[in-house]
Amino acid sequence: MSQYIVLIGAVINLMGVFSYIKKTVLGKTKPNKVTWLLWAIAPLIASAAAFSAGVRLAVLPVFMAGFLSLLVFIASFVNKKSYWKLEIFDYICGAFSMLALVLWGITKDPLIAIIFALTSDGFAAIPTIIKSWKHPETESLGAYTAGLLNSLTSFFALKTFSISELAFPIYLVLLNIILITGICKGRLKMIKFL
Predict the structure, then answer these.
(1) Which domain holds residue 99?
(2) Which residues make Cβ contacts (< 8 Å) with residue 141, sequence separation at least 6?
């Protein structure tokens, strides 16, 4: 039964991200390229590390987060109107994110890899978290809601409840909640000003 719940979560995430990609191509959503590229790299590495540590079906939502982020990154180059101006802070977060990935590469330990992948993903998320609170109109609520539902399905497929299984799904749940809250609060502020 748990495998079906995880697969349903993956399909929901797929639909949410395809909506985000469509809005990106139309120029309505403006993804931060640094964030989305690193959001692709870190979960894909964490997925490989978790898989090498013996995690199987529970890693699917994490893998989907990385793979679909890669698709968003690619889509962000299609329409010039979907451009989001990167600032020094974005590059600093990207540099710290890449440093965490390099440190993982040095250790080769699956648990260390997951910790560094989480750190990398967290640094990559900071610019988009800030953007979701300050400029909610540049983000898509549906994609993060689908991401939250996808992340929650991981808990149905857990076998050992180890750090290898729990770390990234818990992080993704919290991250999506923060992004959803930022977008909703920001949009409520915008409505109050109208």
Answers:
(1) 2-193
(2) 180, 183, 184
